[in-house]
Amino acid sequence: MIRFKFKYMLKNKQTQLILLLTLCVSLLITLIGLGSYARYREGLDTELNAPNVELLQINMDVTNRAFREADEKAVDLSYREEILTYLNTEAYRQPTAAADVQRLLASASADKKLHSIAIADLARKSVVSSDFGYTAKGEEAPAASWSAWVQGIESRPLLIKRRWLEDGSGDSRTELLSIVRPVMVDGKAAGAVIVNLDYDQFFSQMYTHLSSQQYVYNLDGELIYPKLNAGVQPSDMAAVIDELAVSPFSYVKVQGQEYMANQTFSDVTGWRLVSLVPMDHLLKNVKLARNMMLFLSLISIIVGCSAIYYYNYAAFRPLRRIHHLLNPAYNGSPQGNLYDLEPVIGKWVGEFQSKTFVAERSLPELRSKYIQDILNRCIGMREVHTKWSHYFHDWSTEPLNVMVVSIDRYWQWAASFMEEDRMLLKYALQNIMEEVLDPVWRSVCVTAKKDSFVVLLQSKHGSIGTGTLRLDAEKLIGIVSRHLNMSVSVGIGSEVQDISGLERSCADARKVLAYRLYEGYGRVREYAVWDQDMNASMEEAWSTEILNGLQAMDGRANEASVVKWASLIREHGVEPEQVYKAADHILEGILDIAASCNIDPPEEISNYNWNQVKTMDLAEMEHMLCQVIAKIAEQFQVHSHSREYKRVQDMILYMEENLQNNIGLQDIAAHVGMSVSSVSSMFKEETGTTVYDYLTHLRIDKACELLRESDHKIASIACMVGYQNENSFIRVFRKIKAVTPGKFRESSKSSNGYADLPKPRHSGVFEDI
Fold it and tell me: Is the N or C terminus of the chain more exposed, i.e. has fewer CB atoms within 10 Å?
């Protein structure tokens, strides 16, 4: 099996291509990395070596110039008559001749670059110095160290020596660089001129670089500079010098660190000047770049090998899977022949086709769920388009239409059947829709709400317009009416180009469907812009008038109000949605009033919810409101004759007549001859509010009336409505009215009318409802 795999891999063109690309890319990256590194090193040799060589040359010129100046003085003094006379004078006369020599040396050493000058008599071992004068015995002089090596001047025309000068006490030493020239008498070296340079001052003239270290060696290989803090140990420097030999520069390693070494030689002193520049900080970035390129090359090889492995693993996976399915007990790698797989694969293909058929049968449910998710905004736009391509692959790119089919008078219709029957009738309605639409349209039907279906449509024969859809919808209404004894209305939304416009088109369809309010049931309406809106004050006035009429228990007046406002709605063509909201507001108010008075709501709204009015036309809505108002007014009349109602009315009358007095719950209980607890519970049950709250609102309403219609001071008005403390009155007034009494008076007078009119109080029982 392994040999088979390997043979397959070598012959497979895709594997060969991956392998070739992997090798080419990794080789290219490696060559780029190594080439870049080599080129940078070459450029570094050119750009960095030249400045260091120049720096060494500058320092060599500085030292050569200083030595030439000192040497010229030594040569000049070796020919002076005073010095020759001193060397030729007898020993006992030398002190006299030395005086002239000392004056000469003092004058010659006046240059600040010179430390001192001395004349040594090689034969007599006497010395004359610009510092300490004449000494008959040279070994007793402060600079006596010269006597050990100055004899070499006889064979060499120039000596340069690093030495130390001790003071008379021997407590301190001065480091010197001494230049020695012979004084020739009769062809022999009779004496020597010693010119002393201060070591520190001499080398302070050298230029240094922050990143380089410089070393100076004499002809004997002795370290002349630096004298302290040498960065590299002498033994290591000896190895560096051996490796450099006579080449101007080289790369050397010292204790594992790489340096660029440069050197030059002085033609005056014979000194060797060496500089070392560490390469780590120079090559750090380029080495990192080189290593990264090599690492990328390695990564590319790993990725290529992984791709080859994964590709071949995926290629052989079906074979391995088949082998394990045929031989479940075997856990190793399949070897040899994989059996005759044709009948097995044929069987599996058949099973796959069977499962595919099942999946196709379940596709309508998937499509319906998909449409519901869009309408409920449960999925994002990316998922919308992805699932569209999966679930609707057999649909074309033609525009889409949306149709909403709603059951008229749904709550009345639903009340006539049991739950199982309703579900059966809706299923039949859905089947009829599919049969009617199928010849011309591709369709998906979704149960959007209890009373309605949303149908997504696309023409099978290209763009044919909404006229054909309207005819099919009218045909659907007729068939449903005949066979199911059910009335339905249809709204057709605007045409959209793709599925992303489904929600908007559905909203348009629902909007036009709502116009059955005026046109009645069993109609088809297509989307059109409707720009007539209901005046907000009209809706509020209608609701307020009817609800206040209920408080007055005048059923006939309320029915007349309903008829009046229904006529106005027809006359002005109010948008249906606002009419439904107004009707819902009235019905909710009726339910609240009935609940506060412990009255059972009429049967028409005993199980009321918002959708109940949404499937009615205006005539039926008007009829239902009139019936509900008449029944609730009749129950109010019965309720008004009860003993509890009369006692609460007596309490309210007592509070209205004694607003200016400081009355409370005990006074009211005493007035009606009941206990405090009985009064509280009875009042709360009848009015839905407490005695204290009701009394407070009565006082604030009376205060508002006095603020608008009189010029009494606020303190006086507070007393007139039962508040002995002005601050207490202001605090309660602001809590209820959200403004202070003064601000309320100002706004009332500036509006040229009444601000915050009190609510009508025909009976006073339903003040806070």
Answer: N
